[in-house]
């Protein structure tokens, strides 16, 4: 067990170092910060933003129902943020997890090394997820500035639950993207495949609603969007956590199987 843990840490450090040394990763981070900053400003201070809405209510003498600006800002911001993450940022981060190994000729070394496929996949996933979490730090700063003086304050549980759900969503998407990147040596193809899969998973709830009945209800439980939306609104459901962890484990498992197949082909 100690050897496996050491192997995971070794792969994790290697992967994390590669992200912090990659100019492309910083470009992705910069785009993410630009998009998230725009959304945050638009939701809070835009022409139809929360501050404008509160000002209009005050001018009209409307005092009921009260507007919880802090809660609406946080839930709206996290809800909107999921779209550029799922459809652009996260597929771009995951597309090179294994395709770069194929291009450099190091995938065969990994496949035939004493390291288990699970350890490699888990180390890679933890590395890219850690880089993503560092990308969230500037968001936490301007959230704290905007929400620090809110009255009533945002409950810590809702704030924490929303950001935990964002990290779990990212981990699930990165895990699935990692599997797709293990199937090809083209980073563009890996990103496109990840994008297509996420679009399918994103509209699962709409498809389930149109089908209805027991089949539709069962299909609705697979929706990433539904589970993420519930958590960002402060709705604590164990099933949402189970769903995210299931996607994470599924991605790691499929990646390990794909590399095992590659190892068998080379033997």
Large-scale geometry = globular
Biggest β-sheet description: none
**Structural domains: how many:** 1
Strand proportion: under 5%
Helix proportion: over 70%
Determine the number of helices (DSSP H or I, runs of at least 4 residues).
13
Taking all residues together, what is the mean pLDDT?
Answer: 82
Indicate the low-confidence ranges by residue numbers: none
Structural classification: mainly alpha
Gap between N and C termini: 27 Å
Radius of gyration: 21 Å
Let me know the number of strands. 0
Order of helices and strands: HHHHHHHHHHHHH
Task: Write up what this structure looks like.
- With 267 residues, this protein is mostly helical.
- The chain has one domain (2-28, 68-266).
- The chain contains 13 helices and no strands.
- Helix 1 crosses helix 7 (117-147) and helix 12 crosses helix 13 (238-266).
- The longest helix is centred in the middle third of the chain and has 31 residues, at 117-147.
